[in-house]
Write a structure and sequence with these properties.
By secondary structure, the protein is of the alpha+beta class. It folds into five domains: 7-92, Zinc finger, CHC2-typedomain (DNA Primase, Chain A); 105-239, DNA primase DNAg catalytic core, N-terminal domain (Alpha-Beta Complex); 243-361, Dna Topoisomerase Vi A Subunit, Chain: A, domain 2 (3-Layer(aba) Sandwich); 368-430; 450-505, no CATH class. The chain has 22 helices and 16 strands. Strands 1-2-3-4-5 form a five-stranded antiparallel β-sheet, with helices on one face. Strand 9 (202-208) and strand 10 (214-221) form a beta hairpin. Helix 15 runs antiparallel to helix 16 (382-397) and helix 16 crosses helix 18 (421-430). The radius of gyration is 29 Å and the shape is globular. It binds zinc ion. Zinc ion (ZN) is lined by residues 40, 42-43, 50, 61, 63-64, 66.
Length: 511
């Protein structure tokens, strides 16, 4: 399908768009004569050199020489395509695009109806929170220390208990229940065919896409007996969980300024961090962190701080995004929270300053993985060293594009495992095509017997240290060893190449 928009339509969109209003959505403009000036959003500066000319419908920066019309601004500032920018601005001005511009008219209308249904629902839920919610809901928000500003910033709402409160409100507005069903706001009974409210007695978190459109909702149960603590809208034509990040729309400006994001697990973590001033926090939607989400984030930042719960599930959740982030050549750091804390609980207890200190003391993905592997692999054994290197290989291989970092990590790991760096590297190269990371924490290596460990230690000492080599050679014959492989391979000491190979493969020890 051709993604073409006729020039006259593009011109129509530019003319119908108030460029000052569009740019004001993102930066603060100050009137100066006929024009408006601002600090340039595209480069760092202390005095404004960014100017908007409403008469010509153009902007220009005298500092970095960037300039253009509203479409150009939208593309550059929001990192979106031409078609996306024109579509957004056209919709904003009520101009309908022809079918050839990427999507059949019918589908466009359907999507518009879904967005409208969500807008209506968000308003309805927000009003319900402000006026109809029982005392217990306000107590809950107070207990979680959610401020009124956060309620507004994230358009938090409340879905009343009961099966048809929202349905009745929607009917009174003559909204098509079939659209509401497809938007995931209603369910439909298979037996009776009647509609019912999808969200009931839940705190509602509207979920926006990167352009600020509400695409779905998250609902947190307020009844402690409710089994599903969180539910999300089902997937729809406009709601694909794998390419949405909660909080991204609110975080965008900060992300662009800081070039880094804090990735957290839950909606409440995002709300709390933003409330405390860490407004670069975003979260996946209760699912694994996908490649699409990495791509989305990469439009704005080149570094991600992972901040998940400090429990075993949180540790596991921390490991999983690392591979995809490294694959996209992003910097990855891990924020270590004290035991029993999550970002929400920690920042409420300790405040912004303490959280910023945690960010300052974050550790690299490398140190984090090393630490995790060391909890279940005994890296003092040859088999353990090999396993260790195998588990780390897929991650290290992803940073080859940055040779300096790659070398430093290899060196660090070789020192950590007490093995020659070149052996580690040759192993990494042999695993170059490894398509997927080995699942951390899933494999269990049977411990070696004391005898095996002792023999292994001797071989290691023999390979690594010339002084020990002499002593071992003088004191022990190969008969000393019980390991069948070593027994079968006399004269054992004479062949260093063989020994090194043995050490590398480490397959000689029965486990
Ligand atoms: Zn500039």
């Amino acid at each position: 399908m051709a993604f073409l928009i006729p020039d006259d339509i593009v011109q129509q969109v530019i003319e119908a768009t108030d460029i000052v209003a569009v740019i004001s959505d993102f930066i603060t403009l100050k009137k100066q004569g006929r024009n408006f000036i601002a600090l340039c959003p595209f480069h760092q500066e202390k005095t404004p050199s960014f100017s908007v000319n409403p008469g010509k419908r153009m902007y220009y920066c005298f500092g970095c020489k960037k300039g253009g019309d509203a479409i150009r601004f939208f593309m550059d500032h929001q990192r979106i395509s031409f078609v996306e920018a024109v579509s957004y601005l056209a919709e904003r001005s009520g101009i309908s695009l022809p079918e050839s511009s990427g999507m059949p008219q019918e589908e466009r209308t359907f999507r518009t109806e879904l967005y409208q249904a969500n807008e209506f629902a968000a308003e309805y839920f927000a009003k319900a929170l402000a006026s109809k919610a029982p005392e217990s809901v306000r107590v809950y928000l107070q207990k979680r220390k959610v401020s009124q500003e956060s309620v507004q910033n994230f358009q938090l709402g409340y879905a009343l208990p009961g099966w048809n409160n929202f349905l009745r409100a929607a009917e009174s507005r003559r909204l098509n229940p079939d659209i509401l069903l497809k938007a995931g706001l209603l369910g439909k009974s298979e037996k009776s065919g009647s509609y019912y409210d999808y969200f009931r007695n839940r705190l509602i978190f509207p979920i926006k896409n990167n352009l600020g459109k509400i695409v779905g909702f998250g609902g947190r149960a307020l009844d402690p007996m409710e089994k599903a603590k969180y539910i999300n809208s089902p997937e729809s034509d406009i709601f694909k969980k794998k390419n949405i990040l909660y909080g991204l729309y609110q975080a965008k400006r900060r992300l662009q300024e800081e070039k880094s994001a804090v990735l957290v697990e839950g909606y409440m973590d995002v709300v709390s961090l933003h409330q405390a001033g860490i407004s670069s926090a975003v979260a996946p939607l209760g699912t694994a962190f996908t490649e699409d989400q990495v791509k989305l984030l990469k439009r704005y930042v080149d570094r991600v701080y992972l901040s998940f719960d400090s429990d075993p599930a949180g540790i596991k959740a921390t490991v999983s995004p690392i591979y995809n982030l490294l694959k996209s050549e992003m910097g990855v750091e891990v924020i270590l929270l004290p035991k029993g804390e999550d970002p929400d609980s920690y920042i409420k207890k300790e405040g912004k300053k303490a959280f910023c200190q945690l960010i300052d003391h974050s550790i690299s993905f490398f140190d984090f993985l090393l630490k995790q592997l060391a909890t279940y692999i005994d890296f003092n054994t040859i088999e353990g060293k090999k396993k260790f290197a195998q588990e780390m290989a897929p991650y290290l291989n992803l940073i080859r594009y940055d040779l300096f970092r790659f070398d430093m990590y290899c060196l660090k790991m070789a020192e950590f495992l007490h093995i020659p760096e070149k052996h580690l590297k040759s192993m990494l190269f042999s695993q170059r095509e490894s398509p997927q990371p080995i699942a951390l924490g899933k494999k269990y290596i049977e411990p070696l017997s004391k005898q095996d460990k002792a023999e292994q230690g001797l071989i290691l000492a023999f390979v690594e240290n010339a002084n020990y080599r002499m002593i071992i050679k003088d004191q022990l014959s190969s008969n000393f060893f019980l390991n069948p492989f070593i027994k079968k391979s006399p004269p054992f000491y004479g062949n260093m190449t063989r020994l090194r190979a043995l050490f590398q493969s480490a397959d000689c020890f029965p486990i």
